[in-house]
Specification:
By secondary structure, this protein is α/β, with parallel strands linked by helices. It has 2 domains: 135 residues, 3-Layer(aba) Sandwich (Rossmann fold); 59 residues, Winged helix-like DNA-binding domain superfamily/Winged helix DNA-binding domain (Arc Repressor Mutant, subunit A, Orthogonal Bundle), CATH 1.10.10.10. Helix content is 56%, strand content 10%. It has a 5-stranded parallel β-sheet, with helices on both faces. The protein is elongated. This is Response regulator transcription factor. Keywords: DNA-binding, Phosphoprotein, Transcription, Transcription regulation. InterPro entries: CheY-like_superfamily (IPR011006), Sig_transdc_resp-reg_C-effctor (IPR016032), Sig_transdc_resp-reg_receiver (IPR001789), Tscrpt_reg_LuxR_C (IPR000792), WH-like_DNA-bd_sf (IPR036388).
C-alpha cells in the first residue's frame, strides 16, 4: 500500500506525538512502525494506567486507544481524561462487537473510531484530522491567553466599559449606566480598543470571547 502523508502530518511530527494505548503488543508495534514511517513522533503504552502516569494537561497530539483492555478500559480512560478536562482528540480502535460502545464514546466527545482490521491509510487520515483539531485547540488557547493578558492590563473602569461594550450598550447608555459623561466613555473606549489591539468592535468582541474560552459561534 502506498502511504501519502501530507505536509501537515510532517509539520506535526515533533510537535504533536501520537499516543498509542493498546495491550496488544503486536498491534502497538505495527502502528508505531506505520506512523514513524510517515515522520510522526509516536509514544506507545501497554495500558491506560501506564499512559496516566505520563499525562499532563500540557500534553499535545492525539490518542489512538483500544476500547477494550485489561484493567482500565479505553472507555474508562476516556471518561477519566474528560473529568480532567483533557482536550486530546481520541480515536478508538474497536472490534466488530464494540461499535455500540464506540458510538457512546463519540457522544462523550471522542473524535472517531476505526474497526479492526483497518487500512493503514484510513488510520493515517484519521490521525491527520485529529492533529489538525489539536492544533486548532492550541491556537484557541493561545489566543485566549493573549486576550486575557490584555484584559488584565485594563483599569477597573476600562474593564467596566469593556463589559458594557461587549454587551451591546451604546456610548450614551454606558454613560448613563456608569454615571459618567459620553466624552469620558469615548476616551475609555478608545483606550480599551488600543490596549486590546482591536481595530473594530467585532475584533474586540472576538478577543473577549477567546478570553472566556468561547467562540463567536458557541
Amino acid at each position: 500500500m502506498s502511504l501519502n502523508p501530507s505536509r501537515n502530518i510532517e509539520a506535526a511530527a515533533f510537535e504533536q506525538p501520537v499516543h498509542i494505548i493498546d495491550d496488544d503488543e503486536a498491534l502497538r508495534d505495527s502502528l508505531v512502525w506505520l506512523l514513524e514511517s510517515t515522520g510522526l513522533k509516536v509514544a506507545s503504552y501497554p495500558s491506560a494506567e501506564a499512559f496516566l502516569k505520563v499525562w499532563t494537561p500540557q500534553l499535545r497530539g492525539c490518542l489512538v486507544l483500544d476500547i477494550r483492555m485489561p484493567g482500565m478500559s479505553g472507555l474508562e480512560l476516556h471518561e477519566k481524561l474528560n473529568s480532567m478536562h483533557s482536550t486530546l482528540p481520541v480515536i478508538f480502535i474497536t472490534g466488530h462487537g464494540d461499535v455500540p460502545m464506540a458510538v457512546t464514546a463519540l457522544k462523550k466527545g471522542a473524535f472517531d473510531f476505526i474497526e479492526k482490521p483497518f487500512h493503514d491509510q484510513d488510520m493515517l487520515n484519521l490521525i491527520e484530522q485529529c492533529l489538525e483539531r489539536d492544533r486548532a485547540e492550541q491556537d484557541q488557547r493561545r489566543q485566549g491567553a493573549e486576550a486575557q493578558r490584555r484584559i488584565d492590563q485594563l483599569t477597573p473602569r476600562e474593564r467596566e466599559v469593556l463589559e458594557l461594550i461587549v454587551a451591546g450598550r451604546l456610548n450614551k447608555q454606558i454613560a448613563d449606566d456608569l454615571g459618567i459623561s459620553i466624552k469620558t466613555v469615548e476616551v475609555h473606549r478608545a483606550r480599551v480598543m488600543e490596549k486590546m489591539s482591536a481595530d473594530s468592535l467585532a475584533e474586540l468582541v472576538q478577543s473577549v470571547l477567546h478570553a472566556r474560552g468561547e467562540t463567536a459561534s458557541s
